[in-house]
Design brief:
Shape: globular
Strand order of the largest sheet: 1-2-3-4-5-7-6
Distance between the termini: 34 Å
Oligomer: single chain
Helix content: 25-40%
Strand content: 25-35%
Number of helices: 5
């Protein structure tokens, strides 16, 4: 039975294959539900996550010894937001293992990311969400994020540029 007893920790080199598998499984889950144009299996490899770990942070959540989810935390995101003062953390690739995680795990991961951003002394969390994914846009708005803009033609790793809704949540 999945539980919310989550243990959160930074990802390590030994976690790279699991991160790729989690991302690919999340992509397959979306495609099986008709959510197209967002993630495709095989888009990101270990090199992607290794690069993020070198310039930002990748976090894992485990429940009962199993990987339940992960996310990337960046300290800048010029492709989506342009040059910005260092006031925000940028959440990317929030992923949940639907077979190991209890309902509500995604929101817990997002809260953990927000706590990490606050620990780093930043005052807001930003993310971008595929503009055409109405369900995901609503999910983040229900979590307290507000739409602050739109980015057309943002470059994508392993795929064509896409349009994104820019969202922000003030901390504290």
């Amino acid at each position: 039975m999945p539980s919310h007893d989550l243990q959160v920790r930074p990802a390590a080199e030994a976690d790279l294959a699991a991160l790729v598998r989690l991302r690919d499984d999340a992509a397959r889950w979306m495609l099986a539900r008709g959510i197209t144009g967002q993630w495709r299996p095989g888009e990101l490899d270990e090199t992607h996550f290794r690069r993020v770990m070198a310039h930002g942070e990748v976090w894992l959540a485990e429940a009962g010894g199993r990987l339940a989810g992960a996310w990337e935390l960046w300290w800048e995101d010029e492709d989506a937001w342009g040059a910005q003062p260092p006031v925000a953390g940028y959440v990317h690739r929030l992923m949940v293992d639907r077979t190991a995680a209890a309902p509500g795990t995604g929101r817990l991961l997002l809260t953990a990311a927000e706590h990490r951003v606050a620990e780093a002394g930043r005052t807001s969390v930003r993310l971008d969400c595929l503009a055409t994914n109405a369900q995901l846009n609503a999910y983040y708005q229900e979590a307290g994020y507000r739409v602050v803009g739109r980015k057309e033609g943002k470059p994508q790793p392993g795929g064509p540029p896409k349009s994104f809704t820019l969202m922000e949540k003030q901390l504290g």
